[in-house]
Amino acid sequence: MLRISVLRLLGYSGTRRVSLLESSGPRHYGSGSQCTRDDPQDTRAYFTTPIFYVNAAPHIGHLYSALLADALCRHRRLRVPGTAATRFSTGTDEHGLKIQQAAATAGVAPIELCDRVSAQFQQLFQKAGISSTDFIRTTEARHRVAVQHFWGVLKSRGLLYKGLYEGWYCASDECFLPEAKVTWHPGPSGDSCPVSLESGHPVSWTKEENYIFRLSQFQEPLQRWLRSNPQAITPEPFYYGVLQWLEEELPDLSVSRRSSHLHWGIPVPGDDSQTIYVWLDALVNYLTIIGYPNAEFKSWWPATSHIIGKDILKFHAIYWPALLLGAGLSPPHRIYVHSHWTVCGQKMSKSLGNVVDPRTCLDRYTVDGFRYFLLRQGVPSWDCDYYDEKVVKLLDSELADALGGLLNRCTAKRINPSGTYPAFCTTCFPSKPGLVGPSVRAQAEDYALVSAMASLPKQVAEYYDNFQIYKALEAVSSCVRQTNGFVQRHAPWKLKWESPADAPWLGTVLHVALECLRVFATLLQPVTPNLADKLLSRLGVSATERGLGDLFFLPRFYGHPCPFEGRRLGPETGLLFPRLDQSRAWLVKAHRT
């Protein structure tokens, strides 16, 4: 755990202090996710994405955070319909020393810089289909009101005091560092200069008087909270990592800076000589969104889930819950943590020139394609690697060939000339395996497919609840392969509608395959909303038939009527997902004939 090397207290003794600045890595604030194992009757769920720092243009790590939140939120809406039941926020963090310095270097006012970069995030998220209900900027008046009220509550409870802070400070990283995290490297003039051991950025010795939050009083309450809520932080390794941090000494936090040094921020109420530090300022955004300090916010808090990058775990899992407890509020319902993206095995870096522009990727691979790639390949527990060839291979294999090819086979005029959802024949495919007779065509593998498909919606829901969207997509992809095997096994293109022996089984094969496609499309809506809409429309599934609450696979097999049986399919929509590697595009064309 990072610690400050030198501390001297004024007016308070007995506890070491650490600045809220103390961290490494980029700042982008918590993000939302779905409340785990929600009772479908729960009426409120509040998801937050990180509010992203406007010191640089957005990259794929920012988009990944937003997509995780978006998929969880969309899944929740499909389970619990009604826009009033779900809120989903994102936004930009616009205060701090780096913004102040960057604006000065560019010769513009800080707000001009914030306006420009915040607009880039808004445009990216709109382009990527992020379905947020609110985009907050910390420079908004409503946020200043919330932050200053929150500060006043902490002060009225005796949790803030003034003290002298002294230690190494890295302006580039906006954090204080302990002695162990500082090293000495030759500077431009050849002299040895102190730098951050992790980032390599210069550091300087800083000494100032500021306000301190009595974090040390919350060590045991935080431990009790986590031990009584083992799913409060997911995935599990991060949960145990936080518990391990809480076994160490928990110093008090510096939560303000001298306004003469940092003026681009929210002033401390009643003390214009101090500016509220950017992390406390930014964390309160989660309350601002839902109306804090007005009473309305209580209907949404703490039914809240944050999604955050692992680099900001300590701020969200220790400092933020402690601040909330100090203000008389409960910690958030869930904190979902994800790891980072590397590029060809290397960390993304401006100096290496390998920062991936998500806008270019959305254009190159399509919006749904790139959404699918990031959520299919991203594993929250460990860092994931990006390279172009991987994207092309995955999307061509799973979306163009497997899913798109399956649709083409089932809707091709030669196989399905009537363009309908054919009837299911129970004598060809009886509900009990092992039956024999002249009309029975179903094989053991076909019953395995029905079983896998019947359990798929519940399995996917459990993966979403456990923050394993990649596993949900893996399960869908596995069933797509199984369904293609079913179609390949029974080769409907070899059967004839004119044959009394073939026709019932041909209709049944197509009926089963179309039912599988309907389930796939319904389950893919949170990840690939446009592609799923295109597929469901092609199958003739109306907007009111796309929820998860009543998703029932192959009802005719279980003796129930099927509302789609005999229904005309929707209009032809072309390729579901065009291949990116055109050298093998002839395979898709062959499936359409």
TrEMBL record:
Under the heading CDD domains, the entry gives: Anticodon_Ia_Met, MetRS_core
Q: Which UniProt keywords apply?
A: Aminoacyl-tRNA synthetase, ATP-binding, Ligase, Mitochondrion, Nucleotide-binding, Protein biosynthesis, Transit peptide
Q: What is its main location?
A: mitochondrion
Instruction: Tell me which EC number(s) this protein carries.
Output: 6.1.1.10
Q: What is one process in the GO biological process aspect for this record? A: methionyl-tRNA aminoacylation
Q: What InterPro entries does its record include?
A: Anticodon_Met, Met-tRNA_synth, Met-tRNA_synth_2, Methionyl/Leucyl_tRNA_Synth, MetRS_core, Rossmann-like_a/b/a_fold, tRNAsynth_Ia_anticodon-bd
Recorded superkingdom = Eukaryota
Domain Methionyl/Leucyl tRNA synthetase residue range list: 46-410
Enumerate the spans annotated as Methionyl-tRNA synthetase anticodon-binding domain. 444-542
Q: Where in the cell is it found?
A: Mitochondrion matrix
Query: What is the protein name given in its UniProt record?
Result: Methionine--tRNA ligase, mitochondrial
Taxonomic source organism: Marmota monax
